[in-house]
Give the backbone structure.
Amino acid sequence: MKLKSIFLLALSFFLTFNNFTYTVHPAHPRIFLTTDDLPRLRARCGIEDGDNRTKYPDEWGSHREEYVDLVDHRGEHVLPNAFLYLMTGDASYADEAIKHMASAEQHDLAIAFDWIYDALDESRKQAFGNMIIDYADDQNAYDYHATNGTAKNDGYLWRLLPWAGLALYNEGINDAKAAAYLDRARYWFYEADNATISNWEYVGNDGAGYQGNYDWNGLMGSLDMGIAWDTGTDENLLADFDRLKNTGWWYLFILRAGGGQWDHFEALPSGDGFVSFYRPMRTLLYRCASFHKDPRAQTFGDLMSTAGGNYIPYQKHMYWKEILWHDKTVPIVNLHTLPGTRFFDSLGRIVMRTGWDLRKAGTNTDIWADFRCEKYAHVHTHLHQNHFTISRGIDQLALDSGGYDNYPGDHRQNYYHLTVAHNSILIGGDQRKMGRPPRNLKELKNEHYNRGFIERYGHEDPGYTYGMGDATKAYPPEKASNFTRQFVFLNHRYFVVFDRVSVTDPSHEMAWLLHTVNEPAIEDEGHWRAPEFGFSNSREGGKKSSEDTRVLSASVGSSKIYLSILQPASVLVSKIGGSNAKGKYNQPDSYEFWHNGANHPADDLNHVTTPNMGRWRIEARPGTAARDHIFLTVLQPCAGSASWVDNTFIRGNIGQGNKEMYGAHIKDAGEPCLALFARDESKNGGLIDEVTFSVNDTGTLHVLVCDMAPETYHIYRDGEEIGDSPKMVVSGNNTLYFRVEGGGDLHVTVRGPESDGK
């Protein structure tokens, strides 16, 4: 009778809820593991269990140390005691778990119920089952209208429902609710128009995330739910979840040279390398590695285990996660075999590096850079469209200024989250704030939430990496009608940045920004003056200005970055920052977080900052008012003892009409570089198919011509077709890269020799 009533109830429910046809595993345990998994897990702990030493030779003893620590540090925690009961069958562990079930964290209760099920009498099953129902009912009633694939709680809270449903399924405690929990969880996670997997795939199917260090929250919830479902039913919801498949790529690439992440928490006083927020991510990446047999995710987890610095093993009562999910038979990848650049298209971020040296040492010279023009300025993202960062080894050269502190906070609201704290452009002030976040996938796809995107991407190793970001929508329409930035990394040595900006009112003030750790110095014949002009404020503290400098530098550690400003023709340069009169930073009367006439100390860091939070910024403004502006700059990261490499502004003539190309000629003694851009390209077209220019240089010249129409091109020097010719330009890249020995008169055209194209 009981089986018949359950069948009819389930059938009725299926008819109401999309006809789900999954089958729940018939016996306990069924959350995260089943009895079939126990021999392998016991082998990982070095526990004798039949023939597991022979059957699992690669597992034997591989987590013996973690197992011993788990036994020693299990304390009164429910889950480690329940896990040890499964591993050993020792009733004392079950008794300890039972003793503390009433005070267990609500998410732990259902798992513990499943794991010590055989040790529970009927009265305890009923009592603990009712507690699980109380928790799950609260969760079931939660309003999830803000679920959109970018929030850290996507899936994190909802995981309680499938756990509760799996724990209580067919137990006679409340079978209707158990089935309802499972069906609603599955529907919300997998089937709904606004399902978690759909949202996460839309905003990050290449593995990237908007949450910075908080990404693990949402991913952990999705993974918890998916793996519990996979083990507890006959259905695999995560098989095609590309976000998890690619997350190893993401976490590896955002490790800058020196092994630390550039993002928000890097600036905390304890934040050299892996900060405390990374600790839960180790088991997250191990789970991705185990689930998808992914060597990249495995490698990241191992890096966290050996990173040193601030990373230490913590919460040893949680080592059951290591035993359960760290499959040491999954291989790791040799980092040095990975590519140097990866474009995270769904996010709008290009990460580039010259190598994979993660040593936290001054001898690390790898260049790491990040160019970002993200689709959504939401949650933990900032008003930083078309922002870039550059480091050399452990030295941060062009940095993301400010420090993480708690919401709302003056520092966060009036500096850290704003455009002024980033290497972008101020146009009549900061970029616009989002307002309320999108509440679902439909809203997320609305143009209102699209504040930028990387329109083009190109890469050839080791020649160049190129990205074009369109951040026009990041500004109110009454301020700007266009802001595109083309960001080029040439020959692993030089960065060229070309910006086209159109303002709706010539009176709007504009500032091109570069943030540095230490005070900028003038490298040419210019000199600093007392401030005579400013960004909406003539009293900018700690500020000096120059009308006659175009080459500046800033040093940090064993490194230096040179900035050459080639355009606009008339430019006003300022430096803002520094300590107060007593040499102290992060004070109301210091200047490193200066904006709108005041400094904004990071209050929640107790007035303790690190230099990596940034102490100075360079602002470059057009010297004349106009609607349309061009910025062309060259950045040279190098050793602190290295000299500035001369850069020259050059023009190229476009075949159609009298239009021009603007270019930066970097006169490197051995391998000079040249990057050319169409000066007046419109967003509705304007791609070129012919250009001529002259270069006076020797050595192997690296040439990148941007804004090219998709065609096959012939390249001539002094009338002779070069060895790199012909070359094809493809849509979505629109760059033509070639090398030629020496300078001369260069001509790029779609016409070949038979057309007398010389």
Observations:
- The chain is about 25% helix and 25% strand.
- The chain has three domains: 27-336, 373-639, 647-755.
- Residues 373-639 form a domain with the Beta-galactosidase; Chain A, domain 5 fold (CATH 2.70.98.70).
